[in-house]
Amino acid sequence: MEARVTDKVVVITGGSRGIGRATALAAAARGYRVVVGYASNKTAADEVVAEIEAGNGKAIAVKCDVAEESDIIDLFKEADKFGTLAALVNNGGIVGKSGVRVDEMSAERIQRVMAVNVTGSILCAREAVKRMSTKHGGKGGVIVNLSSVAAKLGAPNTYVDYAASKGAIDSFTIGLGYEVAAEGIRVAGIRPGLIDTDIHASGGEPDRHHRLAHMVPMKRVGTADEIANAIVWLMSDDASYVTSAILDVSGGR
């Protein structure tokens, strides 16, 4: 069991709901100071902070649209005021409307998905590396990138653009892990499967995960807490020899 962390900061994008919220609470329970990045729902982000503080933890909420480089820079400046950055969880992500084929997709939709899911994650990692790398005087740390089993399955007739963005995250995780391995930073990815969060509703199919549960070998959907537990394990010293690796948390899918 990992010793309780003290005075180390984790930045979590998309931290106000779903997997991000569960990860924020799990990290706080292990002693991290949590920076809850949120795109628009301040009320939800403030509720996460309040729940952490009620458990004697420390957290702040910072508005950040990860498609905007200036927002990302401001997010990490706020994190600097909070303590020493030890971890980044690149959880912020979006899907377009489900059930749209590639020959029906607009350039605007594709560009938005890539800007949030890919460019945003890379820029957040850039800021984290600047702070954590021993090359830059840092003390090391961990970056966990949220991918998806869609990266392997392709999501045909659903959202191929989202799947492609997560395939890019897989490649980025492996490459960045190699790049900074000798600088005290580990980089790992998580590929969630069908998880009970509102991302399905944002794509226009709120019951999609339950409708497809029969395709999962374990015959059920996963929970945000199950993904969060895997994330905080990757952040921990128990995973100290894990880098450039991607963990499927998908019920065998």
Automatic annotation (TrEMBL):
Coiled-coil intervals: none
Pfam hit, one: adh_short_C2
Protein origin, superkingdom: Bacteria
Gene Ontology MF terms in the entry: oxidoreductase activity
Keywords: Oxidoreductase
Gene3D superfamilies per UniProt: NAD(P)-binding Rossmann-like Domain (3.40.50.720)
Assigned protein family: Belongs to the short-chain dehydrogenases/reductases (SDR) family.
Name the record gives this protein: SDR family oxidoreductase
Organism: Bradyrhizobium rifense
